[in-house]
Amino acid sequence: MSIPELFERGGIAMWPLLLLSILAVGTILERIWFWSRILTREREVSGRVLEAARRDWGAAADIAQRSSILPMGRFLSSALKLQTPDPEVFRLALETSANEELAIMGKGDKILEAAIALSPLLGLLGTVLGLINSLGSIQISDLGSGDATAGTSLGISEALISTATGLIIAIISLAFYRLFQGFIFGQAKMFRQAGSELELLYRQSWAQGKVPAPSSPEPATNASSAVPSLTTPSPETSPL
What is the pLDDT of residue 7? Predict the structure, then answer.
């Protein structure tokens, strides 16, 4: 039996299941592309930034800025781009950026959660509707005959197609949802480790006075020195 035939025999519930499957597959492919770009490079970026921070904070900020295409680069750059902040402000910048990046990484989770929850229910609804149609077509006079038994069996098997379809969509969505959640958990752990180490280095530099202090405004000049004094004309230039 071909897929179009299965879809036709599955009943009306196959249409919302088709929509859910398209959304789920699109989300899964987009998330796979997203994670494939960053998983192999995040640890390298954090190592380079931390190594540079031990020697020169300006170089560390430059490396993080050039890696801002990656979540780890944006995370570390959020604090390093500040102008000599207080250590507490430095820590808050890291925490805020981590929350924003983790929220971006969870993009698409709602769609997968909807597919996981709704697909089995829609499949069950399709089965119930199929059974109603199958049993409703049986005449009382046909009960006990071979034709009625065969028709009922065929109607039940066709009604179960939607349930099987819904379960397949839910299982696939759940598998990738758990996989992506694991990636997010690992990323949060990496953020926590890199942020804690960077904050510790910054606090040590702050305590040792190695972090440049904010530039203070230039003192106001004396009015008497700012405005040139009036002098009497010299004898050579005085009028006769």
Answer: 74
Check: CB of residue 156 under 8 Å from CB of residue 112: no
82 within a domain of the structure (yes/no): yes
Residue pair 50/197 in contact (Cβ under 8 Å)? The answer is yes
The segments of the chain whose pLDDT lies below 70 read 1, 135-155, 157-158, 211-240
Instruction: Tell me the per-residue pLDDT of 98-144, one tens digit each, with 9 for 90 and over.
Output: 999 999 999 899 999 999 999 999 999 988 887 887 766 655 555 45
Residue 163 in any domain: the answer is: yes
Domain of 18? 3-136+144-207
For residue 128, CA distances in Å to 123, 136, 157, 159 come to: 9, 12, 12, 7
- Residues 106, 184: contact at Cβ < 8 Å? yes
**190 domain-assigned:** yes
Contact 123, 13 (CB under 8 A): yes
Number of domains forming the structure of the chain: 1
Is 183 part of a structural domain of the chain? yes
Neighbours of 34 (CB within 10 A): 17
Cα separation, 155 vs 123, in Å, equals 15
Tokens of 37: 């770009």
